[in-house]
Design brief:
homodimer, 330 residues, alpha/beta, six-stranded parallel sheet, six-stranded mixed sheet, 14 helices, 12 strands, 15% strand
């Protein structure tokens, strides 16, 4: 007995993705008429029949979104991603959608997990987080026509050829710009920036917001993400007699280090502003730029859901939402 | 045509739970012979046939554990539960099991979510967190024979008639006792306790560890969970001239408030020890009792998985694991 044709066979014959075949079967209204005809012809030619038992059971289930959860690595700022997962779960639940979480220690391992979940029919879409230059996940998902939205821009897409995709991100530059303007207004002209070493898309973006406000000669300090390295570099700058009225930081972790250095030097007049508005910054009374992860979650679901409220390959792949963060003053 | 008998019909006729019927069909080895015979007789009498299409598809899927994720409420200590979810996801993934998260704002709403997930066949077991006196979730799950393990003891089970269940918890009393002994050894005899108002199972348990070490006249302070209330109550005690060599606290949030009060009073000689070992405590250099959420996750999976590595109604419902926390000195 010949093997029954599969959705992959239909996709190959019609020259479309598996997702497009699935759309023709489930939500034909969103498929271009010419494409729909081609898929329907392939279905007829091959004698493809959707597995009705599977489909019947499948449609009893709610739509499920897969999202990766990093191994817990400690640190102050990881809480932002957790807040995003909380908000996504909350809002997905209101739409009777499910959120399935999976662990992976690298992008390649994450791709293996995504493959398992798709093969098992366990998820309908993915939300990926922490995009980076040359991210292999976006291409992999794009090639397979799997609906997904990224929390994070396609950093360096022009140079690396990363396919465009739907994303939601926080406008870090705008947040740091607001913090820098505030610092100049209340503390003085000498607003330093404490960031990570150059090359991280997120960090460079935040630095741009500071640079847009201060002059070319303003002091730029860098430290790896950690309270003690941040404290050391700020202490060194203060000891060297650098003029510093305020330090705007790329993260709350760096800001806590800066605050400790400032306090130890008896320079409590130096204003320190963080980024992420974590519980630690709140506890210490540090002002900080708030990422609004709840708005990010809303943006992700808005992109992922078509006009019918069902998951679709959204908006031909290049829609995005840039969330304006908010400066929280303390 | 008469309606085909269901697993519920078999359960009713045999006088057992749905889960026991499921065990007879899938893992008969764990069912007592007398019970197994009764179920098998009911299956034969009713002419029950498992839905083979459903079962075939079902067994292609991995086992899925449902776990509730609280709405994000800010705060310093919420991170412990997030760490537990991270660890559970990680370790479940290693066993090729899935973790599905859902949101709910109350125990009753959580029960509705659990019902939806069970009805849709979307999960095989639950992990519940934050158990409390008279918790309706444990009884609901117990009545239905749904496999579950709680992170949290059946607080007040004797008085409230809460059914016994499988649980993993952290030995808060032992952790605070270690912190109190350390404080007496390095700071002095006058070790105060800063806890929450009486009546929370967790808080009372932690207080017992302190009480076991200090005399009956030792100073006990209380504040609701929050940096500012904690700061105020410690500041007041110091201003009133109370003799305080150290403050052992029921949470890092309380400890940060205590630390701020101590610093503002120029009493940096007072040792402050927190509970939860959060990133905020680490950033501030506070010693703290570490809950080891990764060990809790291991304990939960050990109870949930039978000897075959499959999910079972574990150990006749009353096995438990008490994790000994660790004092982290800074």
């Amino acid at each position: 007995m010949p093997k029954a044709p599969t959705v992959e066979d239909v996709a190959r014959v019609a020259g479309v993705s598996r997702q497009t075949v699935s759309n023709v079967l489930n939500t034909p209204g969103i498929v271009k008429p010419a494409t729909r005809e081609r898929v329907e012809r392939a279905i007829a030619d091959l004698g493809y029949r959707p597995h009705t038992a599977a489909r019947a059971l499948r449609t009893r289930r709610s739509s499920t979104i897969g999202i990766h959860l990093d191994p817990y690595a400690g640190g102050i700022s990881g809480v932002v991603l957790d807040r995003f997962v909380h908000a996504l779960t909350d809002r997905a639940g209101e739409r009777r959608m499910r959120v399935l979480i999976y662990a992976a220690r690298s992008a390649d391992e994450e791709i293996e997990r995504m493959r398992d979940l798709l093969d098992g029919g366990e998820v309908d879409a993915f939300v990926i987080t922490g995009t980076f230059r040359g991210d292999p996940r976006t291409r992999w998902l794009d090639d397979r026509g799997v609906p997904f939205v990224a929390f994070g821009r396609p950093w360096g897409a022009e140079e690396t050829g990363t396919p465009d995709h739907c994303w939601v991100d926080v406008d870090g530059a705008a947040g740091v710009e607001a913090a820098t303007r505030h610092a100049r207004a209340v503390a003085g002209d000498a607003v330093a920036f404490l960031g990570w070493p150059a090359g991280s898309g997120t960090g460079d973006d935040r630095e741009r917001g500071w640079r847009a406000v201060v002059g070319a000669s303003a002091l730029r300090l860098t430290a790896p993400e950690g309270v003690q390295p941040a404290r050391a570099v700020v202490a060194e700058a203060l000891a060297a007699g650098a003029r510093i009225d305020a330090v705007v930081c790329a993260s709350d972790t760096l800001a806590i280090g800066a605050r400790l250095a400032v306090a130890a030097a008896g320079r409590d007049d130096v204003l320190v502003i963080g980024f992420d508005n974590t519980p630690a910054a709140e506890a210490l009374g540090l002002s900080s730029v708030e990422q609004l992860p709840e708005e990010v979650a809303d943006g992700v679901l808005a992109l992922l859901l078509g006009p019918t409220g069902n998951i679709v390959v959204p908006h031909e792949g290049d829609a995005h939402v840039l969330v304006e963060p908010r400066l929280i003053l303390r």
